[in-house]
């Protein structure tokens, strides 16, 4: 059936349908659709039927939506609107290949439609069709050569295709069109400069990257990133003295970034352990509250020197209460000698704190607060859990809980220990206890749901997740829509353990729908069925 031109009254109504769709006023949109379709002359108007279907889809009525859109397409197969709408419907169901075919059909009928081209480019990059994405962005650049997005999008296409020369050429050509005074800081222009520099670094244009960042330094908002790029490039160029100054300045800005210390060591070319320790000691004096310059030497020293430095490090952190202390030291557990020293020191602290509120019975002065013993016991529970000595780990965590039964971290760790033991039901129980102490904490909520799934408590896990999912839909549907992969995969494992293979297979298909075929075909074009 040929395209039917609507008279002015109905044409205005159709424009209002489009506006309602854009503004998410779906019920009003359906009213306007009804006003057009109730007229016998336009009861079969293809574009209106298609828009009615698209609106119904937004209201969750998928079957009706497909029925109306397909009917509209049959009635007006030469309409780019009908093909575009059909593509949007397919896209909403994650059928990206089908959506792309619909967009291409729409472009055959209206080759310069900006919205369809933009939608097509988004799906092409989603499907990793980089060649197709480049062609589409070129068309958009030709149609809108003055828009920033047109140039950036086209340059990104070449960047992703690793044609760095062309990407840089396009970015520079566009940069030269920007009228930004040298002393003015414009955020978007700053981001353009940084992106240009990123492409240079990926292309291994080290000297060019350094000169570029120094030339436009005053016009870049992110001063920290400028210094980081300078340090990296100066190191690569072998300009070590300048690089060391840059990394010293970076450490002054953030003394907790381990990468800066690594860069400083490379720049100073420190050859002996004494030289390295001296640098860390100097930085510790300059930044007395920083943890990193005291922690990093522990990676370097063995034996008694390790014991001496560790003793100072642990005392400070236990006194002030540092929950992630064990995580900070966990990377030392590859070394059995260091493990023994850690265990000896901390168990001695615990015994002494219990006896006299000091780290050592030979000390005097101000006593340690009760929380110091709590953090020592918390540390020991993590320590023995790491070593697989679960009985001791439980003893220490139970002692900590007995003294402070309101601390989430303690219950979280107890659940973790039971998980490592293999008692998943008990682990889920204690994680639920942790969650009950702070019901607004999404992280603990997610962990609790995960532990419940591991214990095959699927219904309870869904109820737990429903506290943070959208109202009006079930937690399962919402988590599937959000592509919450950890929940989906844990559900599959739980169903499999319960012998509910049909439900497990259904979940597998849901996950497969999230992942376009290109992700599993090495980026090759999948076979397109007619």
TrEMBL record:
Superkingdom assignment: Eukaryota
Name of the protein this chain belongs to: N-alpha-acetyltransferase 16, NatA auxiliary subunit isoform X3
TPR repeats: 80-113
Keywords assigned by UniProt, alphabetized: Repeat, TPR repeat
InterPro entries from the UniProt entry: NatA_aux_su, TPR-like_helical_dom_sf, TPR_2, TPR_rpt
Listed SMART domains: TPR
GO cellular component, one term: NatA complex
């Amino acid at each position: 059936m040929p395209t039917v031109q609507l008279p002015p009254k109905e044409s205005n109504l159709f424009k209002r349908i489009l506006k309602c769709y854009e503004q998410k006023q779906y019920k009003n949109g359906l009213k306007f659709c009804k006003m057009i379709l109730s007229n016998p002359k336009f009861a079969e108007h293809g574009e209106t039927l298609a828009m009615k279907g698209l609106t119904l889809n937004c209201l969750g009525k998928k079957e009706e939506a497909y029925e109306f859109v397909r009917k509209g397409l049959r009635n007006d197969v030469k309409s780019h609107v009908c093909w575009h709408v059909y593509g949007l419907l397919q896209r909403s169901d994650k059928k990206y290949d089908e959506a792309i075919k619909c967009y291409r059909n729409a472009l055959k009928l209206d080759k310069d439609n900006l919205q369809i081209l933009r939608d097509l480019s988004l799906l092409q990059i989603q499907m990793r069709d980089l060649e197709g994405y480049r062609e589409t962005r070129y068309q958009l650049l030709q149609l809108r050569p003055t828009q920033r997005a047109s140039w950036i999008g086209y340059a990104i296409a070449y960047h992703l295709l690793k044609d760095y020369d062309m990407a840089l050429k396009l970015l520079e050509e566009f940069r030269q069109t920007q009228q930004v005074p040298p002393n003015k800081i414009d955020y978007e222009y700053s981001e353009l400069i940084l992106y240009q520099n990123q492409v240079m670094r990926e292309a291994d244009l080290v000297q060019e990257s350094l000169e570029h960042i120094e030339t436009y330094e005053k016009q870049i908002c992110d001063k920290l990133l400028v210094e980081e790029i300078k340090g990296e490039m100066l190191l690569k160029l072998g300009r070590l003295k300048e690089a060391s100054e840059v990394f010293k300045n970076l450490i002054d800005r953030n003394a907790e970034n381990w990468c800066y210390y690594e860069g400083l060591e490379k720049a100073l070319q420190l050859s002996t352990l004494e030289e390295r320790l001296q640098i860390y000691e100097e930085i510790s004096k300059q930044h007395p509250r920083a943890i990193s310059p005291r922690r990093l030497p522990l990676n370097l020293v063995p034996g008694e020197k390790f014991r001496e430095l560790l003793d100072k490090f642990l005392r400070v952190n236990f006194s002030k209460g540092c929950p992630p202390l064990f995580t900070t030291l966990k990377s030392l557990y590859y070394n059995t000698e260091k493990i023994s020293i850690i265990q000896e020191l901390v168990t001695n602290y615990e015994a002494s704190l219990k006896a006299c509120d000091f780290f050592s019975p030979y000390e005097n002065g101000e006593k340690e607060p009760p929380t110091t013993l709590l953090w020592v016991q918390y540390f020991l529970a993590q320590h023995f859990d790491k070593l697989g000595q679960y009985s001791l780990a439980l003893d220490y965590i139970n002692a900590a809980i007995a003294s402070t039964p309101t601390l989430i971290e303690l219950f979280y760790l107890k659940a973790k220990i039971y998980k490592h033991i293999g008692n998943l039901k008990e682990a889920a129980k204690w994680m639920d206890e942790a969650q009950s102490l702070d019901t607004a904490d999404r992280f603990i909520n997610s962990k609790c749901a995960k532990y419940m799934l591991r214990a095959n408590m699927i219904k309870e896990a869904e109820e737990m997740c429903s506290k943070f999912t959208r109202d009006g839909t079930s937690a399962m549907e919402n988590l599937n829509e959000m592509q919450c992969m950890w929940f989906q995969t844990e559900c599959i494992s739980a169903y499999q353990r319960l012998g509910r293979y049909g439900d497990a297979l259904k979940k597998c298909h849901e996950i497969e729908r999230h992942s376009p075929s290109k992700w599993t075909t090495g980026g090759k074009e999948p076979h397109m069925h007619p």
